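Now for our target.
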Amino acid sequence: EEALTRLETENADLTDILAAMRRFPRCVRLQEMGCEKLWIQSWDDENSSAIGRVGGIPTIIDAMRTHAESSHLQQCGCEALQNLALNDYNREVIAEQGGIIAVIDAMGRHWDVAGVQQCGCTALANIAGGDEGGDNRVAVGDCGGLHAILK
């Protein structure tokens, strides 16, 4: 309860969010709120970079894996990953940590939730789009990303 109350405040910073998410990985409401807060913070380039550098990406992906049934969490996770993937370093971390599969799984499980589909498509496009070497584009295709987008 205390962790939820703390996250609900406007002044919860990145370290507060990640600490709460890591401390209470089974609390779906806290994970939803954490992913939503990280999505909001990821709109700022400096925050986006910081989220990637302090391990926020695996925290988001773990929440998506643990609470696959929560469409709200999946949407917030995809929203955060779509923004984070605009940064070169973050894009590689997302791919290395299984973020491509997490997004595709969210899209497959919540095929009837427009927000998950929209953010999932954008996340996959952003993960693949800035990839100079093409590895992420290949990974998105190999993992079934094109099929997920076209469904």
In short: The chain has a mean pLDDT of 88.
